[in-house]
Amino acid sequence: MKKIGFLNFGHWSSSPYSKVRSASDALLQSIELAVATEELGADGAYFRVHHFAQQLGSPFPLLAAVGAKTSRIEIGTGVIDMRYENPLYMAEDAGAADLIAGGRLQLGISRGSPEQVIDGWRYFGYEPGEAETHADMARRHTEVFLKVLNGEGFARPNPRPMFPNPAGLLRVEPHSEGLRKRIWWGSSSNATAKWAAGLGMHLMSSTLKDDENGKPFHVQQAEQIAAYRQAWKEAGHEGESRVSVSRSIMPIVNDTDRAYFGHEGESSDQIGFIDATTRAVFGRTYAAEPDVLVKELATDEAIAAADTLLLTVPNQLGVDYNAHLLESVLTHVAPALGWR
């Protein structure tokens, strides 16, 4: 069985065609879609984080609200840009949200992607150290965050505290036991996938990847997954590693679907540059009648290798339509592929 959830970028726009016109709409509809997803029998609600954009930017209030409104599904991010984060404050927020959700957070973090502004993390008060790149800074923040999540005391207590302290060094509170084992790294390269495995993080691989050998997107992604799992094995971690991949899958089962996505039927991988030096391959959109989708998706090697599939949703089309898309995948596609 494969876990299936959605990945919501949380766009809002004043366009007359958008059903998500404001930040309030984006947040409240995200909660509604998560509730609908649980009712449909899917497995997860995940949210993308972008700063300085009309998208979801502060994940933890949203994660906590979804956790309070649902009882079963996994709740996560895909991904939080660690260049912008204070690791200790983030550990407090994450611990609180995970406790509210009853231990269901699956927190995706990463170096981040190109943002809306130049070096946006500088506005948040962060600067790479001497001889350190912004990617190095993200990994340094990550390593501190992971260490704090272990729950060991490190801060020297005040001898005259306002409230009595437990014995020994103090840790960040609230602490949620087990959250450290539910951290994922969003990786676009084989090297960072192996780095994540070494630190005991699960792997998130999205709809784009560094083009490392010119092969089709799904083949390169499957190779990345294999390299990650080998590195996890060599690191000797307890427990099983997990891997998620993201896909745009649009079953066409009615005229509305056809009007929105009928033109995507000839979609193919695309090549582009995510910065001045990084060539990337972008995965295709799958849009067709269910019987065609089943045949096409059966050849996707990365989906076959992953245990979790995150469906990128066109959130501006509204909660009802996105719930319909999820239901179509769960009903018309997933059983035929053995995902359900």
From TrEMBL:
One of its GO terms (cellular component) is cytosol. It comes from Nonomuraea cypriaca. InterPro entries: Bact_Lucif_Oxidored (IPR050766), Luciferase-like_dom (IPR011251), Luciferase-like_sf (IPR036661). Gene3D superfamilies: Luciferase-like domain (3.20.20.30). It comes from the Bacteria. GO terms for molecular function: oxidoreductase activity, acting on paired donors, with incorporation or reduction of molecular oxygen. Residues 19-259 form the Luciferase-like domain. This is LLM class flavin-dependent oxidoreductase.
